[in-house]
Amino acid sequence: MAKVITGVGCPYCGASCDDIEVTVSDDGTKVLEVKNACAIGNQVFHHASTPGRITSPRLRQPDGTYKEISYEEAIDRAARILVNAKKPLIYGFGSTNCEGMSAAGRVAEKAGAVLDNCASICHGSSFLAIFDNGYPSCTLGEVKNRADVIVYWASNPAHAHPRHMSRYSIFPRGFFTGKGHMGRKIICIDPRVTDTARVADIHLQVQQGHDYELFNAFRTVLHGGDIPDMVAGIPKEKILEAAGIMKKARFGTVFYGMGLCHSDGRNHNVDIAISMTRDLNEFTKWTIMAMRGHYNIAGPGVVWSWQFGFPYCIDMTKRDLVHMNPGETSSVDLAMRDEVDAFVNIGTDAGAHFPIPAVQHLKKHPWITIDPNICMASEISDLHIPVAVVGVETGGVVYRMDNVPIQFKKVVEPAGGILTDEELFDKIYERMCELDQEA
Amino acid sequence: MKTVTLTMKNKPELILECNNVTPDAFAGKSLADIGRLEVYEGKFRAPLADYFEIAGEAGETAADTRIVMKGDCKRVKRIGQKMTAGEIEIEGDADMYIGGWMEGGRIHVKGNVDAFCGMAMKGGELLVDGDAGNYLGAAYRGDWRGMQGGLIRVKGNTGNDTATFINGGTIIVEGNAFIHVSTHGEGGTVVIKGDVEGRVGGQMVKGDVYVFGNIQYMLPGFKYMEDVEKEIDGTKATFAHYIGDLGERHPTSRGQTVYANLYVKA
Amino acid sequence: MAKINLNMITQRAIEEGVAMEKGKTTPDYFEACSIIEMNAEDIKKLGINPNANVRVISESGEVIVKAVVGRQTCYPGLCHIRQGVWANQVVPPRTQSTGEPQYSGFPVTVEPAEYERIKGALELVQGACGLWKGDE
Amino acid sequence: MGEYLIKNGFVFDPVQGINGDKSDVALKDGKIVETTALSSGATVIDASGMTVMAGGVDIHSHVAGAKVDVGRLLRPEDKLFKSPKKTGKVSRVEMGYSVPTTFKTGYDYTRMGYSFVMEAAMPPLEAPHTHEEMRDTPIIDMAAMPVYGNNWFMLEYLKNGEIENNAAYSAWLMTATKGFAIKVVNPGGTEAWGWGLNCTTIHDPVPYFDITPAEIIKGLIETNEYLRLPHSIHLHPNNLGNPGNYETTLETLRLAEGYSPKSDFGREQVLHNTHLQFHSYGGDSWGNFESKAKEVMDYVNQQKNLTIDLGCVTLDETTTMTADGPFEHHLNGLNHLKWANTDVELETAAGVVPYVYGKNVKVCDIQWAIGLEIALFAKDMMRTFLTTDHPNAGPFFRYPRIIKWLMSKQSRDELLHSFKWADRVIAATNLESIDREMTFNEIAQMTRAGPAKALGIAHMYGSLKPGMNGNVAVYNINPEHMPADPDEIEKAFLRAAYVFKDGVMVSRDGEILATPPKLALWVNAKVPENAQVRRDIYEKFRKYYSVNLENYPVRDELAPNQRVIELDITA
Question: What is the dihedral of CA B250, B256, B259, B264, to 10 degrees?
Fold first, then answer.
């Protein structure tokens, strides 16, 4: 008899949908069917039970090939690398639970390491903006129940968060929004005619890299000032029209994405978006939200803030104090400046997602990858330690893009005796303590 | 004034953090004591003497102490951090946070420096003959109290975020600046002798910015008022006077709204 | 030979997301990510037909990808390679001291490379690290 | 777990009526025991010349959960050059000043001799977050109060006068969130904030729901007494922080007239008004802002069914955070620093704004005086509790400084006269004319016995009676030889000489020695089966929440050491 598990959380994007129904095999080892998930989420569940999963740690040999080793040996090697390095970097956490992040935090503190997460190359700019200017936000249910104007600025949920528009923003019927899509105005601001732009009522095709000027124009208009006839490729009347809709909203939300964080000015594009949201609150109710990428990439920011006081780029090399300054203590900067001498890549794929020169710099030193799957990072590592797939083979707490905690469940047993991230890091910690005793 | 000379003898494998290299820390100490001051390379603490040849003599007070740094200090951070008096001369390049949180005295770097130099400076003088990196004279992350006093002069170019959250003091860049000058500024004066790509004075509440060269992308929130004659850093010229950021809040003083001023050389 | 200068960005696409979860060494991932999306005018300027291979050169590297118009259109002068291995061969690692590389908005030169082979993901990444041993 | 005999200290235990007598306290098996119960192997602690009290109990402090963490995230500058260097062997790194990390929170409370802290506001949807943080806050026992005062279920039930249904829902929510008491923040006003509005009087109707704050407060008192909960409703009234708001406060407090407590846990109040300092303002602008502490306390002193805590301003740079969303927006408009806001669907909101209480800002100084006046005007210290509404009016590690001000007129007068606008501050307040100096016994009432009783946990905390949890603080101060320098009082209370938690010596002279397991307390109230409420919950989750009902209740693994307080009102 196959078994149906309801209320399952999806370990893909920051929308962290928790209404997935998964049918698993009788023995609880194989995913048979997935309902309610998007195309990508579907793939995640099925991939966990594909044949050919790596179930044992692998160590790179002098000839460049991998050899399988025991967990015990892998844990010992990882512990020694962390203890011996002058400045190890532990980076990733896009795809793990808070329990794993917490365990890794303890290891990093013990190792005198720099602890960083994928936000470093993703929504890190949002953190910098929040540090400087705050974050007037809300939970996604507020948007669903109240919002009548939605702005997608430099974000493309149609591709990056496939169910975002249907679950939270454009289409759902909420308490005060019984008309669903019919009762909402959608504004999309993007240099490309994206699939999200196609469902919007208004698309402002901003000149790439000039969002800051456009925000500045919106703010100037909201403060009653005049603006030039054309700003960032957008005619004045289009700006006035959009600003008018935003001012008249009962409840509005700006969902912004990588287009702001990855282009010139980085944090200040978000910073001024926050200022604009604050301005709009002089007229009506407005909120803003970062379209966080992974299902639990908000997690490390939350967990490490309560443990270390900072969400990312946490330099613990001083051991008695923590220092954070992205631009200095951020992974790509550390790599490019040759400031670190060991690299642990966990729950992400720095091999595929860092600019290649950063990968080459990090490769000068020991590189450990902790990940359930074969990925670019695992294929260039010195040591690959496979772990259980979070959200499929183990549960735990994850934080959705609006920082709402969702308690994920496991749906199948971990493949062939694989450890969870938490178990692995706890064992590395214990081994480091033993090495301390021996020294 | 007495001089202590530090000459790099063992370059760090990674990077060296030397927040103890200040006249304040050196004053009144013997060379041996100075050599025992702690520096960091990653998580390893070591005495200063492991990396530098130390010669000369320290003064009794910080004001009476001059430090000269020779050899390759391109990977040495935090020189002169929080210094209150005295002098530091760096003969070549230096890394991040040079003169960070500085309160007095003088630092002269003959080469280039990296990012975050002169961070949240309160007083004193930082002179860089070469280029400076990003976030020159900016605030620490999250702090609304950026540079509050003192003078920073860079003869070369700077990157982005010059003078972010500046509240006071003066920054003069003799070359070009990239983007974001005086963002969130609420006081102080910034002079760019060369060109700026854009985003000058964004979210600025008050304070003054002078640009001698060209601003490629002017912010829509700045409004032209009139041409004015000004003498800036020894140069007399006509400037187009703009006020802004009209998208930002502005205080009132004696019934008048106070704006930030942007002067662009005509 | 025609050469054009474009402003490049790299962002997520659903095809890339699905393929990535399937595996970065799969043909799906190769299909999804080894393409550059450009405005039809720019493709014309290069003197090539859509779906021909081009060389993309930036300040920090170069890569061969297939030029397509794409469904989510760019305006002339703007081009897009989906995030992932191919894009990251050319993304400049400079961060403006924020931690984030210049993923969006950097100059590239694009030129026809119709007879050049598009390398696989593993070949590119292992190759960059001196680990590539060739297809076995 | 060892045995300890704490010998010859000056013991203050208001519950037992011990007022500075020289006596011994014994600890065994995690509990306080009769000295005769100890074996000969007990470790003797010489407490002669020192003050011995039960472990401290904090009735209201924002230390764990979503908005606290936003406060940490928002303020890297709150850590720069302001965090202590880690010392000792067992401790984790300790970061932060006004919003410390969980580790620093646990260690610092312990160093002050506290053993129980009530997290003051838990948004139900984010309860798993609060519990995760409580789990990571070492040593001190904790509980959290779910925020009820703007909850849609509650608004609808109370609008229809359905106390029983509201009670059934409240009991369900208490269990689902592993919560402890009914917290009410700006009733109705926070829901109005969903539209950018507010309720500044208790008669402003809540938009759409058409119920007034006064009706909400009375309805929740009735719900609370129906459920016979250990604690009363815990109220942050409307109109916080505005000049002239003392009238709203008095009107709010009068709503409790005629209600009497129904609980088996020993409390005597039906309403706890938290951080009363923020609600005792006169004047109609910041220009003529003045203290109304006397007017408010004259009323409180007469009403046995009320308790209050101070919310003392400590004149620090701090971080304000509250579920009073519209207030934080308003505050941001005054100081223009960064502003975070989190509205929580169907339930509540929260705002966070840094705030600098400047020593030479007249309004801040008046606020400082009002906090102290509330304590000094109070007649019954068993109903008056020491708090700073941490971190809103000041960080909790300033409690010892407040104790100093309360115990020493000299110390508060020196500060008062050092203000730039001292004359104006004196004119707008009563503080200078008050000679009262608190006794150690009164301090023990305000920081231990009183809050434990009001919370309904006096059977475990707040006293040194045999059978109580083995929580003891020994302070290096001699009540018979008070130091000439009042700063010594602060020093003694900031770093206790010895602190015992559940019978374990956890701290000595400020050094953390051990981190034994800590408890999470919560209330499980069994109510009659209610099909309508069950259906309402199902429907609201299906239609309006953005999370799945089955993932909403806090799972057991997030609270590894639970102490469940069981209640059964079906009998």
Answer: 170
pLDDT digits (tens, 9 = 90+) for A197-241: 999 999 999 999 999 999 999 999 999 999 999 999 999 999 999
Helices (DSSP H) in chain C: which residue ranges?
14-22, 27-33, 40-45, 121-128
B-interface mutation test, from D336, D355, D356, most B Cβ less than 10 A away: D336
Distance from C-alpha of D79 to C-alpha of D361, rounded to nearest angstrom: 24
C78 and A262 within 8 Å at the Cβ level: the answer is: no
Residue of C nearest to B160 (CA): C96
Q: Which of residues 34-93 of A touch D (CB under 8 A)?
A: none
Pairing of strands B2-8, B65-70: parallel
**Where do the domains of chain D lie?**
3-54+461-512
Surface-to-core class of residue D413, CB atoms within 10 Å of its CB (0-12 exposed, 13-18 middle, 19+ buried): middle
Q: Which of C94, C95, C96, C100 to mutate to test the interface with B (most CBs of B within 10 A)?
A: C96
Mean pLDDT of A326-347: 98
Residue A3 CB partners (closer than 8 Å, separation 6+): A23, A24, A25, A26, A28
Beta-carbon separation of C122 and A379 below 8 A: yes
CA angle A136, A139, A142 (to 5 degrees): 100
Q: Which residue has the tokens 């303020």?
A: D75
User: Would the CB atoms of A351 and C92 count as touching at under 8 Å?
Assistant: no
Kindly report the three-state secondary structure assignment for every residue of D454-483.
Answer: HHCCCCCCCCCCCCCECCEEEECCCCCCCC
Residue A23 belongs to some domain of the structure? no
Q: Edge-to-edge, what's the strand order for the sheet holding A31-35?
A: A3-8, A20-24, A31-35
Write phi, then psi, for B21 (nearest 5 degrees): -85, 85
Sequence ranges of the domains in chain B: 115-265
CA distance linking residue A240 with residue A220, whole number of Å? 11
Give the contacts of D480 (CB within 8 A, at least 6 positions apart). D10, D20
Of the candidates A290, A310, A345, which is a domain's last residue?
A290
Would you say residue A227 lies in a domain? yes
Cβ atoms of residues A107 and A344 within 8 Å: no
pLDDT < 70 stretches in chain D: 1
- For residue A227, the SS3 value is coil
Distance from CA of B114 to the nearest CA of D (A): 21
Domains defined along chain C, listed by start: 4-128 (2.40.40.20)
Task: Let me know if domain D3-54+461-512 sits in CATH 2.40.50.140.
Answer: no
In a domain, A3, yes or no: no
Partners of chain B (3+ Cβ pairs below 8 A) = A, C, D
Residue B160 C-alpha, separation from nearest chain C C-alpha, in angstroms: 7
> Which residues of chain A have a CB within 8 Å of the CB of D555?
407
**Residue A64, Cβ neighbours under 10 Å: how many?**
11
User: What's the CA gap between A326 and A131, in Å, rounded?
Assistant: 12
Q: What is the CATH number of the domain that holds A211?
A: 3.40.228.10
Contact A338, A364 (CB under 8 A): yes
Integer Cα distance of B259 and A242 in angstroms = 27
Cβ atoms < 10 Å from Cβ of D63? 27
Task: Say yes or no for a CB contact (<8 Å) between C98 and A125.
Answer: yes
The answer to whether residue A410 sits within a structural domain is no
Window 365-384 of A, Cβ < 8 Å to B? none
- Residue in this structure with the two tokens 């109109």, named with its chain if needed: D239
What is the per-residue pLDDT for C136? Answer: 53
D/C touch flag: 3 or more CB pairs below 8 Å: no
pLDDT digits (tens, 9 = 90+) for B186-245: 999 999 999 999 999 999 999 999 999 999 999 999 999 999 999 999 999 999 999 999
